[in-house]
What we know:
Shape: elongated
Largest sheet: 8 strands, mixed
Radius of gyration: 34 Å
CATH topology of the largest domain: Glutaredoxin
Helix content: 40-55%
Number of domains: 2
CATH class of the largest domain: Alpha Beta
Amino acid sequence: xxxxxxSPQVRASQARAPQAQRGSWNxxxxxxxxIIGICAAPVIASYLxxxxxxxxxxxxxxxxxxxxxxxIPPQLRVTDEKGNEVLLSTLIGQWLMVSVDRxxxxxxxxxKLYFMRQVRLTQGAERNRVQTVWLRTDASxxxxxxxxxxxxxRILVADPAALASWLPAETGLQDTASxxxxxxxxxxxxxxxHDPDPSKLKADLxxxxxxxxxxxxxx
Length: 219
């Protein structure tokens, strides 16, 4: 049948066919693009979050979390202020801020003790949930001025080798360089940097005391 012999209805139908095909193709293409967009959205979002928004992950804590947590060694014995040998685990029940140093207590030692005392005092009524602890690595006499300045600190003698195996030192430093935090269950859970910023140390402790309201007992 020639073009001239086709009815107007046939010719109109044939003219609409390519348009319908193009419309169907366009619709299918947009659906495909929509599916691709939905699938790619998480990747795009994560890219924007990481490279544009730049989340501050890792900055929520000033201290370094100890993972996995290290419980106080059950066999770790210390000598208390009266010369009695006791298990360090008897201190479980309070938050412990722990410092390790020689009995002579030089300036860095005294500075750590001062920071621990002040940070504890700034906790207000919550300070009774916190105990400061100085673990001495020898049994030599402690200077009187140190004893008088830190009467609220538990001053104990411990085996330095046992402490070194329990307390993770900061890279390139000894365990005497840091202040450590032990939770009321007896787990070593945080180490603060060498020569710490006391305001940031305080912020970490305040946050932990607030979150863990039910942990710890008054002294």
